[in-house]
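Hi R.,

As promised, here are both runs. First protein below:
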Amino acid sequence: MLKFYGGFEIDDLSGGPMTDEDVSIAHVWQITSLQRAAFQHFPELQNFSLSNVALVDIREALLGLFSGLSQEMHYTVAAHLRLVPALEDDDMQAVDALYPKELLVEVMVWRNER
């Protein structure tokens, strides 16, 4: 049920439904923003940042990309994307308990998949 309503795109300014073209433009902008952030801040994701959007916005590609990262890197990327709150360096021990790796991967994939 969440997947159905989560996929219903609403314009942030007008509150009305978005057209298919608007949804596509917003999605490409979101993926390219993620690629720019990956290129600038995360050298481990260089292959992703230089790839074509059509190759990396599908669920399987995103799962492969995010599954290979460490727990700390998952959290750092998710925090950079503002999906989770930023923590101080000394709080990183609590990340495993608060945000399991599987949860972080699923949130990042769900947020960025086509």
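And here is the second one, sequence first, then its structure tokens:
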Amino acid sequence: FYGSEKKKNLNDFENIYVFFELDTPDAQKILDLENLLDGEFPYGHVAADLPFSDALWTCSTMFSNCPIKVAHKRIFLFTNEDNPNADQINSRDQSIQRAKDLTELGIDIELFSMNKSEDNKFDFTLFYKDIITIPG
């Protein structure tokens, strides 16, 4: 979880909490995820503009340290923030470079965008056009 109050990740980045290490999904993991939806989010949320590149770096580290063979390396990115680090050019550039590095390592980023509201639609062109490779 990117933007959490708590932290738990191999890089020791602030505000990034790894809920599960990379592993084969099982019934217990699915139940644990469902339980997050049913109650209060126990890891908190910070409103600060955090370096998005740290989240991508954490994903890269997780794949590098994964003890099991992964056939297809993908990051499922669920977000309603269409313009992270909007006022921080250096952070944006680092995120774009980190995404390119992931692509070169054979790791795909799949974006699942959500609107903030009916009037505030997710705008892919603000940032993610430089992060996500669209097939075709």
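A quick note on the second one: The chain has a mean pLDDT of 92. Let me know what you think.

Best,
J.
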